[in-house]
């Protein structure tokens, strides 16, 4: 309507009504003439039709102009609400307004979701930057100490790789395509793959690993299951002191347990360990903790249809129990 004259636009919107009015007027004149009525009567009829049409035209044009003005003003405004729409005069206009109001509500919901996601990403990246600075600084110090610290440098480099992988998985979890492929995989092979990744850290911290073979074939996504086990094993290594022990074994028929002899988790912190950003008492002591690892573990188990729970006692250790039975959804 920006390039169309206002009067022309109004006339185009009322052409059917105008045509109907003209047809009625001409029909009335024809009927008067066929019945041989005096010319004054025909003129009187035409005069009444003209006055009525003019009155209707002026009123209709004014209302059309006011609506146009309101809508143009809303278009130019930075913030527009559905409540500012002009009053409806027809059922079709009312239907359009209901449609617009619904679109506005859906747009607000989408905008709120986008803002929430952006806020989450900003918060996560802020934590991630602080987290990844620690191994980078440690590597810098190890380089200055000399080439005999190669093993420790490899461990710090591994931490950086883990943090990078964590942020990639974090982004994939919020994407529409999570690249989920459920298939039968050997649990022992997945566990060994994860343990090999942290072998040097086990050696450096002199932590004993007790792994009881499960000989179990699970239905899961091997890539996501690897990521899940890496997060849990990384946590166990982080909070288990030198000379401690980490055990991996099968409990019952479907539960994989990762148990450590670490510092444990305070009872008041246990209900919240899977909350995003929650670090608890251990996290406050460990300045590098971000409260993202276990949150991602819960997200991944939900994605895979598995379950996860934690039991812990301060000063004794922590047990993470993964329910790896048949995923809780149908496979198509």
From TrEMBL:
It is found in: Cell membrane. Residues 127-328 form the Histidine kinase domain. It catalyses: ATP + protein L-histidine = ADP + protein N-phospho-L-histidine. It is a multi-pass membrane protein. It comes from Evtepia gabavorous. This is histidine kinase. One of its GO terms (molecular function) is phosphorelay sensor kinase activity. GO terms for cellular component: plasma membrane. It is an enzyme of class 2 (transferase).
